[in-house]
Amino acid sequence: MSTTEGAGPPERDDEARVVQIYTRLPQDTATYCPLQVSAGDTARAVIHNAVVTLGLDACQTYSLLEVRRPGREERLLEAGDCPLERVLLWPPGAQRWHPQSHGYYFVVQDQQANNGGNQVENNSKDYDDLCNLQTVTEEGILEALRQRFYRLKIYTYASNILIAINPNTFLPLYYNPKYVKMYENQPLGKLSPHIFAIADVALRAMLNRQVNQCIVLSGESGSGKTESSSYLIHCLTALSQKTYSSGLERTVLGAGPVLEAFGNAKTAKNNNSSRFGKFIQLNYLESGVIRGAVIEKYLLEKFRLVSRDQGERNYHVFYYLLVGASKEEQEEFHLLKPQDYLYLKQEDLHLDDEEKLGHEYKRLHQAMEMVGFLASTKKHIFSILSAILHLGNVTYTQSEDTHVLDVGPAEVLSTLSNLLKVKKELLVKTLTERRVVTANTTSVSQYTLQEASTVRDSMAKCLYSALFDWIILHINHAMFNRRDMEESVPCLSIGVLDMFGFENLQTNSFEQLCINYTNEKLQHYINQHVFKLEQEDYVAEGITWQTIDYTDNSGCIQLISQKSTGLFALLDKESNVPRATDETLLDKLKQQHGDNHLVVPSSHAEPTFVIQHFAGKVEYHIKDFRQKNTEYMRPEVVSLLRSSERAFVHHLVASSPEALFRWGVLRATFRILTVFKKLGRQRAESISAQRRSRKTLKEMKQHSSAVERLSSNSLTLDFSFDRSDEHPLDVFEDIFVNYEKRKKNRGSRQKQLIPKNLMDLQSLRHIVGLAAHDRTSKFIFHPHRRTKPPTVGTQFQTSLGKLMETIEKAEPFFIFCVRSNAEKKELLFDEELVLQQIKYQGIQQIVHIQKSGYSAKYTFKEFVEKFRMLLPKGAALTPEHITELFEKMALDKTNYQIGKTKVFLKEKGRQLLQDTRNKEVMRQIIILQRWFRACLLRLHFRQKKDATMIIQRNWREFYENQNQAATVIQTAWRSLLKKSKHQQEKEDDKNTSDTRPGRDSLTKKQLTRQHKVELSPSRTQQKSRSREKREGRGSPPLLNRPLSLPLDPIGCNDDRCTSPSKSSLLQRYTDIEGFKEKAERWKERKSEGERTDESSPEIGRRPDVQKNEFQLKGKSMSVDELSKISSSGSDSSPSTNEIPTETDGARFSFLARSTNEDSGQQGSNQSQLTTPEKIWFLSKFLKKRAPKYSPVNEPPSNTAVTLANYTPHSYHSPNQSSEMVRRNPTIRISRATRALQCNTSLEREITDTNELRNLDEFLGIQVNELQSRIKDLSPTESIFLTATMQFRDTIKGMYSVQKPQIGYKDLMKGYHNKVNTLAGSKKKKTEVSLVVNLFQSVLDGFIRGELKRVESEPAKTTKKKKKRRKKDTCPNSPLDHLFSTYQVNIMQSCDLCGSYIWGMEKAYMCSACKLICHKKCLSKIITDCSTRCARQDDSIPGSLHFGVQVCVLTSKAVPVPKVVELLLLYVELNGLYTEGIYRKSGSTCRARELHQILETDPERPCLDSYPIHTITGLVKRWLRELPDPLMTFALYSDFLHAVELPEKAERIRAVYQKVDELPLANYNTLERLIFHLVRVAKEEKHNKMSPSSLAIVFAPCILRSPDVDDPFLGMKDVGKTTMCVEVLISEQFRRYNEKMQNIQELEYAEALAVNQLKLRRQNTLVEKPSQLDVPDQANSDEIERTLMERIKSIKQEKVDLACRLPDLEQEQSDNDNLDSSSSMSSESLEESLDSEGQ
């Protein structure tokens, strides 16, 4: 950054360095700031820029110190020292970059901290606010203003009133865009006084209080009111543009230079004095966006056109035109030198600023285009100006004999006739003859020589005034919003009142009386608001107050404007008396007001009178008072101009613009009908002649129509007013064809421009009504006219009264402008002149009342409503409660008073109350949150307690039943033993032989009988299940008995099965050891990062060795062990999915089979165990999730016992799937049986976007084959088709990922989730396994083919897909700046070279840090954007991933933070179908665990082991913990204002415009997040998350209020923030659907083209080569080539659309295209104007 001091453009220095300025301050500020310093920058300028950049308190005084390595010595820099000279003395290494560790750097510190001898202490304190003065005196105020003025601080506060001293020069860097940004949303007084602060406070007051505001500028001529009003308009439009740029701001900014050129002039006191008053009213929507604007003008000084005092000039526009016009324009407008015109000729005319005048002429051209004037319109305006100048050169001579007036010279009359397009004879008659029209006769008489000169000057003045009125009218129409008439949308407004300043010239005439009367009215308005109304309120409330006296000027106002005896009333009476003169007027004035103390007798002999105004005595010359009061356009002049052949001149003299417009429409209608009839006849003739179209086209090319001749060079068709009379009918024949031709020819510099807001009768009537109070009176011939036009004085009083009514309805802000010296010298402070202005403006009294008064006033009701949180419960509207509150807060009694109905507070007391209230509200909110959390936790605790009790009760019941079953068995067994023993004893008694007891045989019999009993129910179940399978439905099996003895003891080894009891016992311990070994192996696999979640796609595809380990266990297990298996299976899926899937009848049984049995006989040989206990309850405990992929055709098992895997629904068997293959021969469904044999291919990851595209294309081919070969799809095929098409949409969403790392396992899991969701019903669930296996086989085929392709093709370097973002690809955006073209309205200075950027010139501005520079200076930028930081070094990893700036986690290679991309991608693959995916919260413990892992290494955790709601909770947590939210604090208010726009299209455009201003890292991350939310909303049918629901969840995460002190603001903005996020999601959702629809259409077109190509090639192969002719073969090859190119282009377009699916770029509308075409495309004004001239 560079700056210059003093006046004039600074010298350009090529030498520049970036200097790091470090801080040594007690407050918490940034460590350093980089500043670009050139050789011309002083220490004062560097300190100023450092204070602005670091955001330090501008009220403090700082110093700059240089620190050097030897001894770390510090040297204080004086204000005029050059820091760059010190830098160049440092070592070369320290010059480029100088951290503190190198020992060479600069330090900014508070000046009070300096205690060295080099500092010269300044005892005088710098007062930003005059209310801080210890004693308020005129001398004290003068001294404070003087000190600030010489420190280049021209603005000073007096509470909320601004005092601005005119330095008579431009202060660099004082009005650059960065100052608009710096003062935005800052309370008045926090930063150094500035006029931008007043503009911002006025805008915020209007929005907050919903009341119109008015900024009144007061001061004498030369005090800088015009420049101040320009700065105000510039700031207000910049603040509105920041919210939403509708194009209207451009028109408002262009209006200022146009009005200055035509209405300002150089006077003795001011080089740019406004010679008219203007009130600019900016109309706003309630959101802060400019809706429209109106300019009201008051009393243009017409007399200046023909006569001026010495040292003054005519209006600026004449000098601009004569000096800046090109040679072609000089010839076209017949321009001469300024000295050759009588109206410009002066003795002291020295145009020493011709270069500036030439530049202002170019600026005027640009400004006229900005307000909608086309090139032809500008030519008409300049023609009128030239005619006015030539009119002054008309001379009269009178012959002595005939007394006839001769007009000359002839060449001047010919030039006038040509410029005005009137007949020369009529022009001569108008200038020499008077006509009087009565009811019966018309009399003609000649003017005298004096009268003729007066008529000539009157014609020039009225013509210029009419031109000025026309310009105002069309500027208002350009700024007019047509919806103001159509809609009843409430609007607010800010008015800027810039009236002519108080004047006391050498010769004061009627204009000065009107000007000073206006200033008297303004001064009275200020006194009323600042003194009278305020003090009356204090007295009425009965508070202690000492009345402050002020000067009341109501007597002077009565003197001038009293109805019967005022000066204006006397002037009107004398103007109507035929024989009255100026002297008779003066006599009546003295006679009526001779005893008035405000009328001072004149000491001169000349006819003058003196009035004592509030600002001093002014002597007025009575000459020409009557003539100026009754000046109007004479009927002869009106008649002459109405005869002009130029329609533009008709508009200038129209007494009724509405009537003229209606006649113009009627004439154009008839002429267009004539053209259509003529064209119809020509068409009929051409058809009858049957001419060929080719010949007609040739004739059309050779034919040069009238429109083409008309539009040659730079003339375009003008739609701004009726010109139908100026050209023949041929002009209208090709108007539409010509316009379409111009639209297509984009490269042409001359474009046919049609204004967006064409004028209609309704809008014209509305605009004319706004300016009807001050239009030039036109007197036309009418035989029965009885009334005359109103006088100028009457018209002026009426318009001024209307103005005062308008501003009295608004809340005022006052700016007192002070003239620094009378000589117009730069930076010269004339104490005597400034003191005089302080006195008559009453600044001392204003400061006194502002210091003693109370800025905040509340009624008791308003106070209680606002501060109810601080008052006790049930507090009434009584002063006692309020006083008790103040005493409790220990509020200083000098800061408040309590009246009868109101509470009066000073700003300090109000701020204390506000802060206390905010703290109390936050405390109450925390209490509510604490109680709510406690209630929620208690509710969850009670639910878990109830659930635990239910589980315990049911488990006890089950356990009792289990014991009962064991007791029954034991009883039966004991009874059997007793019975056998009893029988044995009986046998022993009977038989005395020595025989062994038959226990074994008896046991064997019993067991055989039990086997027969228990096997029969199993067979029944098998039959019923087989029947159900045939019917296509399955049912849950009956629970088999868990404690059954082994059926086949022969199958066991002899050593392991000695007895039933021993076998059971050994089997129990063997199982426990097996489970321990299994648990250890599972932990090892988990530590290696293997997926353990049961939803993982690779589960069920493990080697048979691991699977068979479990089958080595015994043949029976206890219920406890079985429940342990089920519970462990619920927690970890690997242990469950290693077991093969069995038939339904074996889901809860232990299967006993021989080692030599085939797996196909498994179902028939298994043992069916039953139990009479509650089957449903046991199924709850043993229930496990279904495996994602059920193994089919398992090899024979080597073990005797296996545990079946539980599946909730029966799947199709392989036999059924093979039947489907035979029925539908499409994709090889039989391959699904081999899908799980190729699981190793799924371990592959996709790292190239081309592989994603190939996969998408491959699946598209498979889908097309399925659709083309089968018309009636089975349920399996239907699910497969739908899921695959949706899966392709998912793949297309990944096209935009720069470096994808997507595993095929994750894709399979996502596909499985889609299939599960699509299956839906219980009936369709049977198709899931087959569809998934089918897709896996298809995917495996693609992977094998892709591997072969990669091996066969050499490695190619993939071109990095550039992100289609306009602002990133812009070559003019270096070092992360976001540059865009910037139309400069007020003069500014380049931040790099320091030279001026003139008004209306185009510059480049960074929308983030507001750096502004020339285009040629872009290459000089060596500092990064201060607000759009980005980590450029990819080798430096981020230390943390949560709670840090987004830019720290991103780089060019990683545009989106890794954590965000990882979490979002996982949710998209696994959670889109989860109900309430972002509404429900996950486990706090698991979230904390995952957060700790992601904090350090995002790639470390296995997300499959965490619930999906835990992962979505981490996404929201990452967003909430950002220091600056994704939609930054800086743009928070802009986003809120954007969503308040009434029109949906404007709302969307405004939101996207603000999104485009986000830092690059935030933009990319937000783009990725919104695209993710769009994909979530796309599955709203399943996850129940609509765009509005997602906006409610994510708005607090990405768009947070920056004001944490006032909780009410955040609560008030909840609806707006939610709407803003919803707008983004909904609009992106709409665009996503449109793009996907376009992609589908392209795929359909591609399929058609491919089929055509196949058919053509097949037909070509069938035919013999001998039968093909050579031309036909060449034609066939050409068709094939065309088809191939078409397919290639469709594919590329499809890829481009898919890559742009997440784009957040703003769509261009037709209005934008029209604006861009109507704006100048040249980079500089010189190029554009030179091209026009050529």
Structural class: alpha+beta
* Spans where pLDDT lies below 50 across 5 or more residues: 1-14, 113-123, 693-698, 700-725, 731-737, 743-754, 995-1073, 1085-1238, 1357-1372, 1430-1438, 1662-1668, 1710-1734
Shape: globular
Estimated radius of gyration = 46 Å
Strand content: 5-15%
Output mean pLDDT: 74
Provide an overview of this structure.
By secondary structure, the protein is α+β, with helices and mostly antiparallel strands. 51% of the residues lie in helices and 9% in strands. The strands form eleven sheets. Strands 6-7-21-8-17-11-12 form a seven-stranded mixed β-sheet, sandwiched between helices. A five-stranded mixed β-sheet has the order 2-1-5-3-4. The radius of gyration is 46 Å and the shape is globular. The two termini are 39 Å apart.
Topology:
Layout: E1 16-24, E2 32-38, H1 43-54, E3 62-68, E4 73-77, H2 83-88, H3 92-96, E5 105-110, H4 138-150, E6 155-158, E7 161-166, H5 177-182, H6 195-209, E8 213-218, H7 225-243, H8 248-263, E9 264-265, E10 273-274, E11 277-284, E12 290-298, H9 316-324, H10 327-333, H11 354-370, H12 375-392, E13 395-398, E14 405-408, H13 410-420, H14 424-432, E15 433-437, E16 442-446, H15 449-478, H16 483-486, E17 492-498, H17 510-541, H18 554-561, H19 567-576, H20 582-593, E18 599-600, E19 608-613, E20 616-621, H21 625-629, H22 635-642, H23 647-653, H24 657-689, H25 693-702, H26 706-710, H27 730-733, H28 735-744, H29 761-770, H30 792-808, E21 811-819, H31 831-841, H32 843-852, E22 856-859, H33 860-866, H34 879-888, E23 896-898, E24 902-905, H35 907-990, H36 999-1030, H37 1060-1087, H38 1104-1109, H39 1119-1131, H40 1134-1137, E25 1150-1152, H41 1162-1165, H42 1175-1182, E26 1201-1203, H43 1214-1223, E27 1245-1246, H44 1249-1269, H45 1275-1292, E28 1302-1303, H46 1304-1319, H47 1328-1352, H48 1366-1369, E29 1379-1383, E30 1388-1389, E31 1396-1397, E32 1402-1406, ...
